[in-house]
Amino acid sequence: MRNFNNISATKGNNRGLFFQLSFFALIAIMSLFSGQISAQQTCTPSTTVTEGDLAPGGIVSFGVSSGPGSVTIDHINAGTGLQELTVVGMPTTAVMNIPAFAPGTFNPVVVNFTTPNPGLGVDFTLRAASSFYSIFIRVRCAETCTPFTTVTEGDLFPGGIVSFGVSSGPGSVTIDHINAGTGLQELTVVGVPTTAVMNIPAFAPDTFDPVVVTFTTPNPALPVDFTLRAASKFYAIFIRVRCNVITNQPKPDDGEPQEQ
Question: Is 226 inside a domain boundary?
């Protein structure tokens, strides 16, 4: 009977340990996934500052800067300080977090935001005010374009097109060598593109795994156009990657605050 009790206790302890380890593993996976989503949804916005709805002098009363997923409002060290900071209208392309602050503060106040759908871009307006002056701050991020690709035979033996699969997603191009032959050996950018910044990840030569090239557009007002070269030992392809101009970008005459 004693042996049976010992065996039962051991099984119970093992079961408890199994559930504990499973729980911690689940937490770790959720944290990693959350971090990946956060990174995908963070952009550094452009800002357009215009005079507000109080006395003239708002623009010189506030400093405005931006960072990844944030806008910082900093009242100059004079006057009545920052009294109000609000969102204009009901934005649908971003979720904002305006922290609590002491009215009259001269400390910087950082507004954070996330983008539920980066494919739609970001466009919202903040209003910052002291007792006498105010500004409107229009905050925008470019849409993430999903490029169209044109694949042509490369500079090695004929047969490159049937050796590689090519697909695209928001801000990315995926190259996938078929599961035969010598695998992907080289992946490079042709020339020196000026309308996109590419990131080609490290990969093991001969890989048969998909390789995802990501890119950003320094100036979304210009079309994206660059070419990749993918090669195995015997076959190669050229991949021309293009995005059309994104039309809803900030313009010099487009600074008026918009009702969202």
Answer: yes
Phi-psi region of 28 (alpha: psi -120 to 50; beta: other; left: phi over 0): alpha
> What is the total count of domains within the chain?
2
* Cβ atoms 123, 259 nearer than 8 A: no
The reply to whether the predicted model has a pTM over 0.70 is no
For residue 127, is pLDDT > 90? yes
Q: Residue 31 falls within a domain, yes or no?
A: no
CA atoms of 237 and 173, how far apart (whole Å): 14
84 in a structural domain: yes
Give the Cα separation of 40 and 117 in Å (integer).
10
- What pLDDT does residue 251 have? 45
5 lies in some domain: no
Q: In 10 A of CB 19, how many CB atoms? A: 10
CA 191, chain centre distance (Å): 26
Beta bridge partners of 63: 74
Q: Are residues 127 and 175 in the same domain?
A: no
Q: What distance in Å separates the CA atoms of residue 77 and residue 62, rounded to the nearest whole number?
A: 10
The residue segments making up the domain with residue 184 are 148-243
Residues 239 and 152 in one domain: yes
pLDDT on residue 99 = 97
CA–CA gap between residue 122 and residue 113 (Å, rounded)? 10
Q: Residues 131-190: pLDDT tens digits?
A: 999 999 999 887 778 899 999 999 999 999 999 999 999 889 999 999 999 999 999 999
Three-class DSSP category at 28:
helix
